Amino acid sequence: MNIARSYVNDTSPLPSPWRDAQVAVVVPTYNEAGNIAELTRSIHALDLPNLMLIIVDDDSPDGTGSIADDLAGRANEDRPGSMVVLHRKVKEGIGRAHIAGMKEALARGADYVVQMDGDLSHRPEYIPRMLGTIMSAHAGVVIGSRYVAGGSLSADWGRHRRLLSKFAGLYVNAILKLPLRDATGGFKMWRRDVLERIDLNAIRSDGYSFQVEMNHLCRQLGQSIVEIPIHFEERNAGSSKISFAVQLESMLTPFALRFGGRRRPAGQAEAVRSLR
Ligand SMILES: Nc1nc2c(ncn2[C@@H]2O[C@H](COP(=O)(O)OP(=O)(O)O)[C@@H](O)[C@H]2O)c(=O)[nH]1
Ligand SMILES: [Mg+2]
């Protein structure tokens, strides 16, 4: 594994109330067997004693779900309630997985809910900084942003991918009139009361446009969105799950959000909770 750690060099202990906050970290996984152990280790290594990790696995064929169950068993022996695994029977997309995880986080009393990827692209070391920002700015959501000053992308990203990502951000901002540098980013921290006011059952996105839809709904509530710089790593192990259907949805959703139409109900896949 080749992960630079120097970009987060602030290791001083967090002051209260930061470190005592009830933080839930939601991570959707589909075939992340090569990443889940390191991800769990680095999240639980944070100086946040009330942090809970919620893995939402859509029955990954590579066994990510059962690896996560083992990890949860050990984590909960060390600190009861520190890790939950939701097993869903159908692969319904990252958006649906996040919705399930967010609902679980709220039901378990989280005051702040992080959403991040399970491939180590999003480094957990940024979470304390996000927490400090959301508390001091009283933001509705903090985005770990690749495109604000100080943010950066993995050197492994070629020109084509960089251009596509930039274009997606400009496209979304233009249609939805969002003032964001990284409208499509997936590393975020939400304030509980904002998530409670968003009707998660009415979210129309299944896939990656979930990120954009949530930003739009947050703005509609009049809540502020604050971006802080992150370095975005190339995924560690495994491969990307972006499909053509998901890309098409990402193109069409901003129009649907802007110009209305009926919102669809949430997916029907049954979530079976396993808490060890
Ligand atoms: N539960 C679940 N997780 C998913 C699904 N699609 C993607 N993911 C997870 O979402 C995160 C981001 O996906 P990834 O393929 O890395 O997207 P990319 O970084 O944009 O290429 C990873 O943790 C994936 O395992 C899905 O349908 N269900
Ligand atoms: Mg990824």
From TrEMBL:
Example GO BP: glycolipid biosynthetic process
Keyword Transferase: yes
Keywords of this entry: Glycosyltransferase, Transferase
GO cellular component, one term: membrane
Positions of the Glycosyltransferase 2-like domain: 25-198
UniProt keyword annotation of Metal-binding present: no
Source superkingdom: Bacteria
MF annotations from Gene Ontology: dolichyl-phosphate beta-D-mannosyltransferase activity
InterPro entries the UniProt entry points to: DPM1-like (IPR039528), Glyco_trans_2-like (IPR001173), Nucleotide-diphossugar_trans (IPR029044)
UniProt family annotation: Belongs to the glycosyltransferase 2 family.
Protein name as annotated: Polyprenol monophosphomannose synthase
High-level lineage: Bacteria, Bacillati, Actinomycetota, Actinomycetes, Streptosporangiales
